[in-house]
Amino acid sequence: MAESKFHVPNLERALSILQMLSEKPQGLTQKELIDALAISKNSVYRITMTLMEEGYIARDETSRCYYLTRKMMILGASAMGDSHLVEKSIDEMRELRDQVNASIYLAVLEGTTGVILEQAIGGSPFKFSVDLGTRFNLHSGAPGKALLAFLPPEEAEELMSKLNMVKFNSRTITTKKAMREQMEIIRKRGYAIDMAEEFEGCHCIGTVIRDHRNYPIAMIWATGSSFNITADRFEDIGAKLLSTAEKISRKFGFLLP
């Protein structure tokens, strides 16, 4: 009886919805949620709208399915010290590290910055290492530029409108026009390049990991010194990076068009 006094039915239903969606990465429709929970359509509507407004779930406008967002992934990674994404990526990250002789990083978007979830340190005697959880700018590096390029256009434009494109040096992209031009190149090539646009002497090559909806759920990239990742290696590293990203993406249901 003591427990029922503090029982919050709608909170329990919201948690049930989150649990169900965590078990169905392809998403669930409103009808499927109603049938599974055996509650009214109005209740499901109010709960899902609240979760959407808070950024914990989103809805695919084509399939009309609800699915968990990156915000939930960040919470899970913070609570567990690891994540489903990391588990499905780490072996391929280490393999890529050995192939290209560079450090490999994995990150997701949180707000207007990227957050590093995992790293596979490697490369030349001069190695790059960061603390997990480190945030980074989107406009001045390969992973962020790749994410902007492969997000749905409306989402990319909305995200760009919130970015403070700080100028770090003469190579930094600081305008939307210049970023849009770069994004078009990235889409055609498949990966982005960072020619020391924020950190002197640091080159990066990055792309995205996609889910079954062809949606970019994470960023993956190789980082090394300009003496190690030289311009004549960009194409080779880019090809290996794309192959790695595709392998990981397939674990999330991605299929090539």
Automatic annotation (TrEMBL):
The record's keywords, sorted A to Z, are: DNA-binding, Transcription, Transcription regulation
InterPro entries, A to Z: GAF-like_dom_sf, HTH_MetabolicPath_Reg, Tscrpt_reg_IclR_C, Tscrpt_reg_IclR_N, WH-like_DNA-bd_sf, WH_DNA-bd_sf
In terms of SMART domains, this protein maps to: HTH_ICLR (SM00346)
| Keyword flag DNA-binding | yes
Domain IclR-ED residues, every copy: 71-254
Keyword DNA-binding appears in the UniProt entry = yes
Domain annotation HTH iclR-type: ranges: 8-70
Q: Domain of life, per the record?
A: Bacteria
A single Pfam family it belongs to is IclR_C
Q: Provide the protein name.
A: IclR family transcriptional regulator
